[in-house]
Amino acid sequence: MNTISHHLTDETLQEYAAGVLSVSMETLIACHLTLCPVCRARADMADAIGGASLDSEQTAALTGSASDILAMDKTLPTIKPAELPPVAAGLGVPKPLARLLPGPLAELPWKSFGPGMKQYNLSPQPRKEGAFKLLSLDPGSRMSKHTHEHRELTFIVSGAYSDELGQFNAGDISDLSGDHHHMPHVVSDVPCISLIATDAPVKFDGLFGKIVQPFVGI
Ligand SMILES: [Zn+2]
Fold first, then answer.
1. What does the alpha-carbon distance between residue 9 and residue 162 come to, in Å, rounded to a whole number?
2. pLDDT averaged over consecutive 10-residue blocks of the chain (218 residues)?
3. 96 CA to middle of ligand 1, Å?
4. 110 CA to centre of own chain
5. For the chain: N or C, fewer Cβ within 10 A?
6. If you measure from the C-alpha of residue 201 to the centroid of ligand 1, how many angstroms do you get, rounded to a whole number?
7. How far is the CA of 49 from the centre of ligand 1 (A)?
């Protein structure tokens, strides 16, 4: 059953179509697209319009609300689950992520950065061009409240977390711009594993953030 309820923003899909996003963000977006027929259709639409050369009329059409674009989905052919690209056999993660992993999630060389919190870096220089990493948070964990200088994309691989915007389950994407503060906490009874890509380092609020930030490095 498709339980995806949080999608990419129009702005992100336009930039994806225009090919101006980092490789890590493109990979993360591809993970969501393999599971989400709604955003696949929207990405095709952005592609057809031509993300790179938008005149003002097209821009006006594309900046319609997400609900407008999602409403267009009703006119699209139904995609049966059997036709969806499969997740990588054995690893249980979407293929765009699976090809970056040396093995199953449980066997990765995770690095702990706090009680019940660990991360696995997918980018050799996370601090220069933004982070690209897997984060695993135990049930009940709560991230320090933080904001971002530019953008943070989060793809939920397994488990679930909740923040001010609602609950995010496996397959969902959280697409946050820089002016948004959030404080995610894990609501699943299994660890919540998410893939995170940021444009720029995260800024944590408060004392805990100042302590944990050097270790998290996002
Ligand atoms: Zn989607």
1. 19
2. 83 90 92 95 86 47 49 44 50 89 93 92 71 93 73 93 92 83 89 89 59 54
3. 16
4. 19
5. N
6. 25
7. 19
Question: Residue 162 C-alpha to ligand 1 middle, in angstroms?
Answer: 18
Which domains, from first to last, does the chain contain?
10-83 (no CATH), 101-216 (2.60.120.10)
- Predicted confidence at residue 204, as pLDDT, reads 61
CA distance 198 to 171: 18
Q: State the distance from the centre of ligand 1 to the C-alpha of 215, rounded, in angstroms.
A: 31
Spacing, Cα 177 to ligand 1 middle (Å): 17
**Distance from residue 211's CA to the centre of ligand 1 (Å):** 35
